[in-house]
Structures are given as structure tokens and as C-alpha cells.
Amino acid sequence: MTLTPSPTTAAPPTARLRTLVDGIRAAVDRGLPPEATAWLVADVLRPHLAARDLVTPAQCEGDPDRYRQHVLHAEPDGMFSLVALVWLPGQETPIHDHVSWCVTGVHRGEEHERRYRLVPGGTGGAGARLEAAGDLVSPAGTVTAFAPPGDIHKVRNGSAGTAVSLHVYGADITRLGSSVRRVYRLPADR
Ligand SMILES: [Fe+2]
């Protein structure tokens, strides 16, 4: 199973991408709480998702070994960042949660998500496990938004073709290295 995306690549934006970034900045600058901000950003992202000029062919290139991350924008003040994730068939994330609010939008293909609930164990956490809390299939055009806590999930490309999705995070993940707060290795529902 792939544990981390392949190394990031910085990529020059398309004109549409610059428009999208301006819209995200306006939504974030309203200063609303994390989940409300995420849904505002989702509304900004949704109408751009189907556009052919949203990302360049180079920004849709995958990696045969693991899902690939292309950094599209990192806001200088660190308030948000935008990446394209490219998944070849069968590639997936580990079970993880996030450092900040997150918005995802499927540009091409289909993503399969499993959400989990952490079931605490006894003394010292013995017996803790992850219980499946829901499955979501997201075809192109689908937007989701969430904010920690309660954001444990894994994502995989369950389709036969390449999947490309845009992800907006409420942090500069180029400084942090990743949007992942924690990878969970507890027993989990498959
Ligand atoms: Fe995630």
C-alpha cells in the first residue's frame, strides 16, 4: 500500500487556475470558522472542475509507484494551498486525518472514499480500532468539504482509468510537507 504521495512538483498555473486561486483567497479572507470556510471554498471550486483548461497535461501526470501530488499554489501568508492529486488505477492513501480544513473536487475519473470512526480502547489505548463509518463514490464534478476533528479516511482510485482531483487545504502544505496530521495503523474495517 502506498504510504505517501510521490514528490511534489511545482507547476505554472493556467489562467483559469489563477481565477480559482483569486476566488479561494476571497472566501478564506472572510475569516469564517474552518468548516464554513471549507464549504465556501467548495462553492468556489465546483464550477471550475469540469473545465478542460483547469490543469495542464503535465499536472495530470501520474506515477506508476504511488499517487502523485502536483503543487498548484501556496498562498504566501500560509492561509491555504492547492494541489492536484493524480491516482492511477488501484492507488490509494493510508488511513489518515488532516492538519486543517480540506476541500476536494474530482476533475477526472472517480474516487472512492472510506470514512472511519475511532473507537477508543481501554487503559493505554489497548484495543482501539477504526470502525467504518461510511463509503462514498465521487465521480468527476463531486466536491466534498470537511474540517477536523472527525476527518479520518482513506481514498483510492477504484476505477479503471486515471483519477485527478484538486485539493485545497487551510494551511501551506509545502511548508508542512503534507496535509496529513496522522497516519493510523490501528486495526480497521476493510
Ligand atoms: Fe485525506
Automatic annotation (TrEMBL):
Domain of life: Bacteria
Residues annotated as binding Fe cation: H96, H98, H153
Molecular-function GO term, any one: oxidoreductase activity, acting on single donors with incorporation of molecular oxygen, incorporation of two atoms of oxygen
UniProt xrefs under CDD domains: cupin_CDO
Keyword Ligase assigned: no
Keywords, alphabetical: Dioxygenase, Iron, Metal-binding, Oxidoreductase, Thioether bond
Keyword Ribonucleoprotein part of the UniProt annotation: no
Sites of the 3'-(S-cysteinyl)-tyrosine (Cys-Tyr) crosslink: C102-Y169
Signal sequence coordinates: none
Family: Belongs to the cysteine dioxygenase family.
PANTHER family: CYSTEINE DIOXYGENASE, CYSTEINE DIOXYGENASE TYPE 1
Protein name: Cysteine dioxygenase
